[in-house]
Design goal:
Helices cover about 65% and strands about 0% of the residues. By secondary structure, the chain is mostly helical. It is elongated and about 60 Å long. It starts with a helix and ends with a helix.
Length: about 140
Amino acid sequence: MNKYTDYQRIFNCFDGDGKISPSELQRYVGLIGSELLLEEVNLVVDSLGSDQGGILGLDGFESLMESKDEEEKMEGLRKAFGMYEMEGCECITPKSLKRMLSGLGESRSVDECVVMINQFDLNGDGVLSFREFELMMLG
């Protein structure tokens, strides 16, 4: 089953008439344990379904689902980055990389970690910022 078919199936579960109103979207978001104010839902629907007159069609719904995937991907990257970074420096240092790799069962020297970091260190400061980590993971 492809992504389009999955989104269409979910969309049809939300509403059988081919469109989702802001109040319907708010209700279904509430069912999955999240809470959005009607004003927030209206902004989402207006931005994604502007050609539908305040109603979210399948294309807008797909865009919404894709943006959620991006948010989840970024959240996962931030969590992973947090596991590697040293406390308080908001970057991955050779020592913090060595510590994390050791915890994963990979024994590396600090010098080897320096080489690994230098491959993705775009600004040459010897550490990885979140942006550099993101480029490394998604690149």
